[in-house]
Specification:
- The chain is of the alpha/beta class and 142 residues long.
- The protein is 51% helix and 12% strand.
- The protein has a 4-stranded mixed sheet, sandwiched between helices.
């Protein structure tokens, strides 16, 4: 990624999505949470997330967000984000922000499955500072 490149790429931009707002959030996220991390986020389909999940993690199902630390890339399923937003009572844009934060924390080396709550604490701290709804780790704990 070179200076001026967008932080977000969409396979297909939904007409009702505020892309500029999400791009501004990604810039803010980098400045606040990960100033040393030049990340990129792909918003794509369930099918592509399933292919990536199978290829890299050997899990044959779609998921909401995947992180690839070797390339500083994040992939998010738009359809899953929309469904999760409806389930949790907030907008798709808010859910995409939650998922992007989660992905960035993974890029920074956090792993909620093995780090004894470090990622959960970091996610909660940044959700509060960034005015985001409940995150993935908190949802899973319920």
């Amino acid at each position: 990624m070179s200076p001026g490149d967008p932080y977000l790429t969409f396979r297909r931009v939904p007409a009702d999505l505020d892309r500029d707002s999400l791009e501004r959030f990604a810039v803010k996220l980098r400045a606040a949470v990960a100033p040393q991390l030049d990340f990129h986020c792909l918003i794509t389909t369930d099918a592509e997330l399933r292919r990536l999940n199978l290829r890299f993690l050997q899990h044959d199902y779609a998921t909401d967000v995947l992180s690839f630390p070797e390339s500083n890339d994040i992939a998010i399923s738009y359809r899953t984000a929309v469904a999760q937003a409806a389930l949790h009572g907030h907008t798709p844009e808010q859910e995409l922000r939650v998922l992007t934060l989660h992905g960035v924390l993974h890029l920074l080396g956090y792993d909620h499955q093995t780090d004894s709550g470090r990622m959960a604490r970091a996610e909660m701290k940044w959700r509060q500072k960034l005015s985001l709804p409940t995150g993935l780790i908190a949802r899973a704990a319920k």
